[in-house]
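Class prep. Write one:
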Amino acid sequence: MASGIKQITNGRILTSQGWLRGGSVLVEGTKIIEVSKSEGTPDEVTTVIDAKGGDIVPGAIELHAHGAGGSDFMEGTETAFRNAVNTHMQHGTTSIYPTLSSSSVPMIQAAIETTEKLMAEEGSPILGLHLEGPYFNKEMAGGQMPQYITAPIKEDYEMLIRSTNCIKRWDEAPELRGSEDFGRFCASNGILPAIAHTKAEYTDVSNAFEAGFTHATHFYNAMTGFHKVREYKHEGTVESIYAIPDMTVEVIADGIHVPPTILKIIYNFKGVERTALITDALACTDCTDAQAFDPRVIIEDGVCKLADRSALAGSVATSDRLISVMVKKVGIRMADAVRMSSETPAHIMGEDHHVGIIRKGYDADIVIYDSDINLQFVMQKGNIVRNDL
């Protein structure tokens, strides 16, 4: 565990009030103890970290990732969880919600057990478990395993939710029978219900929003857009979400799942405060040989696909790549891209009282990028996990 007082200096610091130049960040233990307007080194500082003119910003909060480094959270084991989480931390993620694709009840229970154990550890980067399914529209399954997909099963979800406090988010298709009851039960138990893998139109989305579905999963992906049925035009899920101003969205900002032009439209419509960046990363992320653990998998143009190229299985993006894509390809400001990966996810999940911002009293989750948006340094709760400075 971190010891002594660390000072991060010689860079511009992103605070909730904007960029601070000529200042420094003081860290003791797991917390930020001061954001100073001075670069002078107090006597009590034991370690000085020179940012070398880089951007000192909050670490990313990953709302939606299935694995990395050859490990999938669906495995449910401590080894798989630790490997995947540690891989993401090397790329600037300092808090994470491990995500399960559509799974059986025993698979979810195994993941719950592991999540609870790891969350109880001091300094854990895990903020909770994210269940993506299995309550989805089978026609919009995408890379989800079809054998697990079903309409909401009240006995199952009530039993699972009552068994633990670690489930923080659960995704579902709101056009399915029982959706509103599911959403209300989740919301009443402190779980964020989110819209996903769906053909919902406006009435479904509006009713879901009233039932607690205030967030949309990997916006534009696995949901319908504007379409025609015979001579009649219909809004899709995408337009329905735009039509509800207070609904938040997340986007796979790898520049492939959602092209840069659409990312810019989302940014313009939903804004920084209602748009979170996610990787939706699979186990093959940052893996030197994807086929070593699954011969069906290939990585092509930065996307994980099945070997027959018939299905877009998921992303191999990491948090640092999301920042780079949003700035370099989409053309938004660095501060906005960082906020969409840190402050906004924290707000969506109700964790903005301790993470997502560089502020006195907050967790010391800090990363540094150089002028070309290359990740140089990662600190997670005061511990240095990467240092290329």
